[in-house]
What does this fold into?
Amino acid sequence: MSKLINIAVDAMGGDGSPKKIIDGIIHNNKSYKDNFYKIFGNQEQIFPLIKNKIDQKFYEIIHTENFVKSTDSPLEAAKKGKDTSMWLSINSVKNKDSDIVISAGNTGALLVIAKLNLKMIENIDKPALSALWPNKKGMSVVLDLGANIECSSKNLLDFSIMGASLYKSLYPNDNPNVALLNIGSEELKGNEIIKDTFQILNDLKLDNFNFSGYIEGNQLMNGEVNVIVADGFTGNVALKTAEGTANFITEELKKTLSGSIMGKISSILNISNLRKFKKRLDPRLYNGAIFIGLDSPVVKSHGGTDYIGFSNSLGVCNRIIKGNLIDKIKSNIR
It folds into this structure.
């Protein structure tokens, strides 16, 4: 067996936990025999869910009855102390007992507790929240998605390098194209910070990505750019807009195909294509935001996803560690 990848799992965060989390681990274990799950949470609730479902050589339960609630503010979560499942799982990567940590819990609390426990990578001022988005040709990495409302040109430069490193760790055979999300494609468009960043990236020559200039919101899904960089305010608005649009299209299509006899006949005749369409827009396939810039990777699974979505996030954890994300960032950061 190859070297196991140790994943610290906060089993008590998110809707339907810990059952959803444990079901996700069981499902993930079917495909990833090189993952070892260090599960933090209430053993009395967790063990009956996992007992005899996967071999015990693939997991360990670290018992705690304390956990961060979805209603806790980041400050309240931090004040709960060092025995919550979220804190203990993050501390596990801090102590090098685990390679990566994942939680479906409170996002704000996760970011704060991670920043309290983990050091920043040298020369990086701010960490960023990134995620995978589908496009016409494959996948894109988008960041920052809300961790930093205000950013300097140095921050956006760092995000570009970190985003490219993340893409390269997930897709090692591809060299990504990086672009800045802006209100236009012309060099004179945008505020001073984004224009300064454009000049820096235009003059910077790095081996791990190509700079493609600006990208507008209506081009995010065309697949020409693999890494899309923005400040946290702009990135979060873009994320919520894309999610809302995808939900709108899916719901309207469903109404159209079930609202009349002809619609129902059409849906039956096109069942194969409709399944492909549904799968392409299935958010569970892209579940797992990555908090990067710290010296250990932190993955945030969507709190409302199901066990399939959580399992896919565990798969992302595996690929991040195998792709040596942190080393890639360190070797390229300025």
Remarks:
- The mean pLDDT is 88.
- DSSP finds twelve helices and eleven strands in the chain.
